[in-house]
Amino acid sequence: MSGLKPGEVNLGTSIMAVEFAHGVIIGADSRTTTGSYIANRVTDKLTEVHDTIYCCRSGSAADTQAVADIVHYYLQMYSVQNGKPTVPLAASLFQELCYQNKDNLSAGIIVGGWDKENGGSVWNIPLGGSLHRQPFAIGGSGSTYIYGYCDATYRDGMNQEECIEFVKNSLALAMSRDGSSGGVIRMAIITEKGVERIFVPGDKLPVHWEG
Amino acid sequence: MSIMEYNGGAVVAMVGKNCVAIACDKRLGVQAMTISTEFPKTFQATPKTYIGLPGLATDVQTLAEKFRFKVNMYKLKEEREIEPRTLAHLVSSTLYERRFGPWFVEPVVAGLDKENRPFICSTDLIGCINFAKDFVVSGTTSNQLYGMCESLWEPDLEPEDLFETISQSLMNAVDRDCLSGWGAQVTIITPDQVITRTLKSRQD
């Protein structure tokens, strides 16, 4: 597995996705770094691959953009020939690319979306290209700081508002501790009705202990 | 991985009308991880002179203590406070002493001399002094600080205006550096008083 090459742009990152009754909530910070310089402080790391299927990108910006573009293309083709794709199908495509090219990629991707057969589902694809369906998933360099918080706070059967608060608080904590994460929080609520985007600017981030 | 970028940090100093200002961030990190948000990098040398020490945190602490010792000894022997220009040379020699195994800090000195004339300078990690008339910058955010200071600084700013200018320069520069920030501290030195203020800033 490769790391970032010198000069390559890094999506340091904190990303997250949570499944709830009617769909999924996905969220991400907005920082892109080149070394210690913040190249983009308002990045959109939530990328559409189909109408109600999104991915959260972490790792190399170039690698994840390229992979997401390819999956987007495959899903366009699939939907023309076979109708709406399912989320596990999209996740499977991501997995194939990430696993078969593991030596050349630095990409940690979380796929989240809604489809008729499964309702909402979250699929975590960490660095080696394994695939894990989880009730909620966290990823990126900032996620290491919030494993304990997420395990302690997550409950089954949360409603939409509770999930949004869960994602917002978790990402705010990660952004506070991780130098490679920061900026604003972007979230998307994906349900049968489509995608609703939420934007939390830097001055509205939840504030925790900052001793 | 550069040793100067292990802990992160930023310091800037500016000259105003009969006053100087020195400011620093408050982050202590271990590469990408933030450990503390209460690690300011400016230290008082005399009532009218401050030293800023960005760089490797262990050397920041050690040199702050060494300079405190040297300044106290100077005062005992000379029976007067050390002048800012003299302190700058003291900093320079202390660093050059370690020419081939240097302290990993790039200090900034700011103060008023005995005639209350403003003085600022910075040095590199082996003691080369840069005497500036306008502003000096140091730390992992130095490039961003150069841009901000070059645009915002103008000569003969009054203390209140200098405070605004140096604060905006520091805050906006560190917002483009992932190794600095998490709080900021600004000290304004005038002939009558020294005021240190803590700024509310982004915690990311």
Automatic annotation (TrEMBL), chain A:
InterPro entries: Ntn_hydrolases_N (IPR029055), Pept_T1A_subB (IPR000243), Proteasome_bsu_CS (IPR016050), Proteasome_sua/b (IPR001353), Proteasome_suB-type (IPR023333)
GO biological process: proteolysis involved in protein catabolic process
Compartment annotation: Cytoplasm; Nucleus
A Pfam family of this chain: Proteasome
Positions of the catalytic residues: T13 (nucleophile)
SUPFAM superfamilies: N-terminal nucleophile aminohydrolases (Ntn hydrolases)
Domain of life: Eukaryota
GO molecular function, one term: threonine-type endopeptidase activity
Gene3D superfamilies recorded: Glutamine Phosphoribosylpyrophosphate, subunit 1, domain 1
Keywords: Cytoplasm, Hydrolase, Nucleus, Protease, Proteasome, Threonine protease, Zymogen
CDD domains given in the database record: proteasome_beta_type_6 (cd03762)
GO cellular component terms, A-Z: cytoplasm; nucleus; proteasome core complex, beta-subunit complex
Reaction(s) the record says it catalyses: Cleavage of peptide bonds with very broad specificity
Assembly and interaction partners: Component of the proteasome complex.
The family this protein is said to belong to: Belongs to the peptidase T1B family.
Function: Component of the proteasome, a multicatalytic proteinase complex which is characterized by its ability to cleave peptides with Arg, Phe, Tyr, Leu, and Glu adjacent to the leaving group at neutral or slightly basic pH. The proteasome has an ATP-dependent proteolytic activity.
Name of this protein: Proteasome subunit beta
Species assigned in the record: Linnemannia schmuckeri
TrEMBL record, chain B:
Pfam family, one: Proteasome
UniProtKB keywords: Cytoplasm, Nucleus, Proteasome
Domain of life: Eukaryota
Record's keyword annotation contains Ligase: no
Protein localization: Cytoplasm; Nucleus
One GO cellular component term noted in the UniProt record for this chain: nucleus
Keyword Cytoplasm listed: yes
GO biological process: proteasome-mediated ubiquitin-dependent protein catabolic process
Assigned protein family: Belongs to the peptidase T1B family.
Quaternary structure, from the entry: Component of the proteasome complex.
Summary of the function given for this chain in its UniProt record: Component of the proteasome, a multicatalytic proteinase complex which is characterized by its ability to cleave peptides with Arg, Phe, Tyr, Leu, and Glu adjacent to the leaving group at neutral or slightly basic pH. The proteasome has an ATP-dependent proteolytic activity.
Protein known as: Proteasome subunit beta
Species annotation: Linnemannia schmuckeri
Primary gene name: PUP3
